[in-house]
UniProtKB/TrEMBL annotation:
Gene (UniProt): guaB_2
InterPro entries per UniProt: CBS_dom, CBS_dom_sf, Diverse_CBS-Domain, DRTGG, HotDog_dom_sf, Ser_kin/Pase_Hpr-like_N_sf, Thioestr_dom, WH-like_DNA-bd_sf
PROSITE patterns xref list: CBS (PS51371)
This protein's name: Inosine-5'-monophosphate dehydrogenase
Keyword terms: CBS domain
Keyword Hydrolase part of the UniProt annotation: no
Top-level taxon of origin: Bacteria
Organism placement in taxonomy: Bacteria, Bacillati, Bacillota, Bacilli, Bacillales
Signal peptide: none
SUPFAM superfamilies cross-referenced by the UniProt entry: CBS-domain pair, HprK N-terminal domain-like, Thioesterase/thiol ester dehydrase-isomerase, Winged helix' DNA-binding domain
S-adenosyl-L-methionine recorded as keyword: no
């Protein structure tokens, strides 16, 4: 039976897009406490089912598929620009497909403005009116108001008119940054992207006997299975090692490994892979916040996903991408790389930040491992035992040396120098992934 929390989330999913939601209404309709309703609405917000806007409230929005994650709703725009909704509140759930900056003659502006757009413009009342008639929402910059006619049109067409105190250039930058951040999120592989769903997952009940395990093992050839109770809650995991020496009639709950390691749908694949390697496990159950089994992932799934992702073109550039772009292989005999410190990588004092420095060390060490045909590795530990400030625009030399490498792990010493003086030393340990 579903918990109250799950019932509320299911109820919210059934509400029509654009519907206004309140803690009090949810609590009354589903006969739960306001605290329970509040927590469920916050979870719905995390799942991008609803959006909460100051001075407007919480509204049901369309859940976006990952391939459309960079498309923002007008409700999200309000939050990004700290705006006020002057009209058309019933259209806040809609997504925009393009924004247009109104810095041209009115006729030219309208040629570029279409249905589903967001026109960013100052106090040009005619432009507001024409944009709404064309099917576009309006974002009024500079803290200006909209006319009563425009507000009425916005309500009639269900297209938001939003006011913000920021100027047009700042607003365009903020929206661009939000879309860019979404593109980066789109590239990050999550467990939900590779999950073997529950309907395709082989699992056992805690009241089953070991003979059930042997039957499922023979049928699937899998060595391990998650174990659930009568309510579908994950209570353990059972493998071939657990059943050795036990009779077929013995209950699974007596021999299973209780409280197994789990991940959630929003865990990154990289994080799960590192955990599986570190713990030496091949099968990882996926559970929700209430412990209910949602599916499983295998080590093979994780490695395949990581290898596929490495071959994909990047759409959004992270700090790691910037660092890799500045790192160049100078010598392949003994691996030597050179690297230039750019403004994005510095701290408030103009020297390289510790975060950027760490990324440089890791990238240099993994480059050295790649020369030994170890393409897949996961950082286990890093000890920086000498570090001097490196100033902006400096070009440093990085020399990674593999000290020791076995089938499962490797130790790499990395030395960083500037103008023939050592400015950094570190020791990194990696777990090597089976290919």
């Amino acid at each position: 039976m579903a918990t109250k929390h799950e019932q509320i989330l299911e109820y919210i999913e059934t509400l029509p897009v654009g519907e206004k939601i309140s803690v009090r209404r949810i609590a009354k309709d589903l006969q739960v406490s306001e605290g329970t309703a509040y927590r469920a609405i916050k979870e719905a917000e995390n799942q991008r089912l609803v959006s909460t806007i100051e001075r407007v409230g919480t509204i049901r929005i369309e859940r976006k598929k990952k391939e459309n994650i960079e498309r923002l709703t007008y409700a999200e725009i309000v939050n990004i620009v700290d705006g006020q909704v002057m009209g058309g509140r019933s259209g806040l759930h809609k997504s925009l497909n393009k924004f247009v900056i109104g810095a041209m003659q009115l006729d030219d502006m309208m040629r570029y403005t279409e249905a589903g757009n967001l026109l960013i413009v100052g106090n040009r009342f005619k432009a507001h009116e024409y944009a709404l008639q064309a099917g576009a929402a309006v974002l009024v910059t500079g803290g200006f108001e909209a006319s009563d006619t425009v507000k009425k049109l916005a309500d009639e067409y269900e297209l938001p008119v939003i006011s913000t105190s920021y100027d047009t250039f700042t607003v365009a930058t903020m929206i661009n940054r939000a879309i860019y951040d979404q593109l980066i999120k789109k590239e990050i592989l999550l467990i939900e992207d590779i999950l073997i769903p529950l309907e395709n997952t082989n699992f056992l009940q805690d009241k089953d006997t070991i003979s059930h395990y042997h039957e499922l093992n023979k049928e699937t050839t899998h060595g391990g299975f998650p174990v659930v109770d009568d309510h579908g809650k994950l209570v353990g995991i059972i493998t071939s090692r657990d059943v050795i020496g036990h009779g077929d009639a013995e209950l699974i709950e007596k021999v299973m490994t209780k409280d197994p390691i789990t991940v959630s749908m929003q865990t990154s694949v990289a994080s799960a892979g590192h955990r599986m390697i570190w713990e030496g496990i091949d099968l990882l159950p996926v559970a929700d916040d209430h412990g209910k089994l949602k599916g499983v992932i295998s080590r093979q799934d994780v490695l395949k996903a990581i290898q596929t992702a490495q071959r994909q073109p990047q759409q959004g550039e992270t700090i790691d991408d910037l660092i890799m772009g500045q790192m160049h292989l100078q010598s392949t005999d003994k691996v030597v790389l050179n690297f230039r410190v750019t403004p994005q990588m510095t701290n408030a004092y103009g020297s390289i930040s510790y975060g950027a420095y760490s990324a440089i060390l890791i990238e240099a060490a993994t480059t050295a491992l790649k020369t030994k045909n170890r393409k897949d590795s996961a950082l286990e530990n890093m000890t920086v035992y000498y570090l001097n400030p490196v100033q902006l625009d400096s070009t440093v030399l990085i020399k990674p040396v593999i000290l020791d490498m076995s089938r499962k792990s490797a130790k790499v010493d990395v030395e960083v120098s500037f103008e023939n003086k050592i400015v950094g030393k570190a020791l990194l340990t990696f777990q090597l992934l089976d290919r």
